[in-house]
Amino acid sequence: KNEVEQSPQNLTAQEGEFITINCSYSVGISALHWLQQHPGGGIVSLFMLSSGKKKHGRLIATINIQEKHSSLHITASHPRDSAVYICAVYGGATNKLIFGTGTLLAVQP
Amino acid sequence: EAGVVQSPRYKIIEKKQPVAFWCNPISGHNTLYWYRQNLGQGPELLIRYENEEAVDDSQLPKDRFSAERLKGVDSTLKIQPAELGDSAVYLCASSLGLATQTQYFGPGTRLLVL
Hints:
The structure holds two protein chains of two kinds.
Chain A: E1 4-7, E2 10-14, E3 19-25, E4 29-37, E5 43-49, E6 52-56, E7 59-64, E8 69-74, E9 83-91, E10 96-99, E11 103-108
Parallel strand pairs in A: 2-11
Antiparallel strand pairs in A: 1-3, 3-8, 4-5, 4-9, 6-7, 7-8, 9-10, 9-11
Chain B: E1 5-7, E2 10-13, E3 19-24, E4 31-37, E5 44-50, E6 53-56, E7 65-68, E8 75-79, E9 88-95, E10 104-105, E11 109-113
Parallel strand pairs in B: 2-11
Antiparallel strand pairs in B: 1-3, 3-8, 4-5, 4-9, 5-6, 7-8, 9-10, 9-11
């Protein structure tokens, strides 16, 4: 079992829909990243959070430390949001960045 | 401010050939990471540098992979000889410090071994 699990693995949405991507982890963490990776592109950090909630534009990230769970929400989704969204945690015995396998999001016009 | 720079962006080689990737981190970033990302998977850490010192290379296949960061700035990752299974995207990232600092990723080098 992976230490960081994401769901769903693949997600197709219509433009304008509200999107939620979930991340669960099994190790103790000090912080959690949400990252975005476009096809053929590099990885961009969207959020780093250790508690509560953060908002940037149409993106919202929440984390529940007790439940070891985080969600990434996209409001009013747009085709340009199509990308792989990766959850990564600083945690475990070595405090390395441990990555989930990503969620492939396709937003159709 | 320039981001993390990697070159080349793409490389196609035959198996058993050597290959090298170069990374220039964001200016002032002491920590440099090399990751390998296989298709459909998250990145996997290969090696982490603090300045010129490799502080974590436990996941680096040392029989064929080597890395250096001689002056604590740019870094080179080498594979010799390359195998078919080495086909992947090799990502470089940098951060100001070690613990829980935001990592900034380069565009990656996409390697195809034939």
